[in-house]
Amino acid sequence: RLNICPASYYLFWYYPQGMKEFCNRFLTMKQATEEEIADFKEKFMKLVKISMWNTRRGVKDAQYLSKNPPHTGKVKTLVEMFPNAKFIYLMRDPYTVFESSRSFFTQTIAPLELNTIPLEEMEQNILYGYKELDNAYQEQKKYIPEGNLFEVKFEEFEKNALEITERIYRELNIPGWDEARPAIEAYIGMKKGYKKNQYQYDSRTVKMVNEAWGDILDAWGYKRL
User: Fold this and answer.
1) Mapped to the 3 state alphabet, what secondary structure does 197-211 carry?
2) pLDDT tens-digit profile of 141-166?
3) Average pLDDT, the chain
4) Alpha carbon of residue 65 to chain centroid
5) For residue 7, what pLDDT band results from cuts at 50, 70 and 90?
6) Are 182 and 176 in contact (CB under 8 A)?
C-alpha cells in the first residue's frame, strides 16, 4: 500500500519511533492535513477501481469488499467517499488483540525496521494505537446511515458463522444470500479444523490491558482477568 499512498499508518513498520505520529495522522487522521486526507481519498479510490476492474469487470451490480482494520479509524472519511457503504465491525477479545499484536510486531515486523525502540515502548504504542482506533470509531460511527452498520463479537461469529453471516446479509439489506449460501457454507465447513494461536496471559500483560483498555472490555462485555 505504501507504493501508492505515502500517507499510511504502515510507515511504522519501518520507522517504529514515529508510530504515535503515524497513528494520529494516518490511522485516525485526527492530525492529518487537508492535503493528506485528499491524498488518501484519491489513492484509495484508485485502488478500488483497479481491484474492481481486475476482479469484477463486467459483473452487474458488483460491490467492493474491503477487510482493512486501519479503516476503523476513518469511518467519517469513508462515508464521505461512499455514502451508502455498509460497515461490519468485528470486535475481538482485547487480551488476544494485544498478544497477537505484540507477537506480530516482534516476530514479523522487527526484521523490516530501519530504527528500533525498546520492547516496553512498542507495547505502549500498541496500547495507545488500539485505544485511539476505538475512540475514533466510537465517535465517527454516528456518520454511518441507519441500517448500514452491523457490530458483532468475533467469538460469537466464530461459533455461529453461517447464522451471523445470514444476519449480516439480511440486516444490511445485501442481496443474493440464497445464491451465496452454498459457497459460504462450504467455505465455513473447510475451516472447521483450523486451529488458532492459543495465548497465555501473564499478570503483567493483564495489568497493562486492564489499565489501558478496561473501558473497552467493559463496553463489550468481556470479563476482566
Assistant:
1) CCCCCCHHHHHHHHH
2) 999 999 999 999 999 999 999 999 99
3) 91
4) 13
5) low
6) no
Nearest to 91 by CA among 219, 225, 223: 219
| Strands of 112-178, DSSP E | 149-153
Q: How confident is the model at residue 193 (pLDDT cuts 50, 70, 90)?
A: low
Mean pLDDT to the nearest integer, 192-203: 78
What whole-number distance in Å separates Cα of residue 67 and Cα of residue 55? 16
SS3 200: coil
Task: Report residue 123 as a C-alpha cell.
Answer: 507495547
| DSSP H or E segment with residue 87 | strand 87-91
Three-state secondary structure call for residue 150: strand
- Residue keyed to cell 520507522: 15
Question: How many CB atoms neighbour CB 125 within 10 A?
Answer: 21
Over the stretch 70-92, which tens digit does the pLDDT of each residue have?
899 999 999 999 999 999 999 99
In 10 A of CB 132, how many CB atoms? Answer: 17
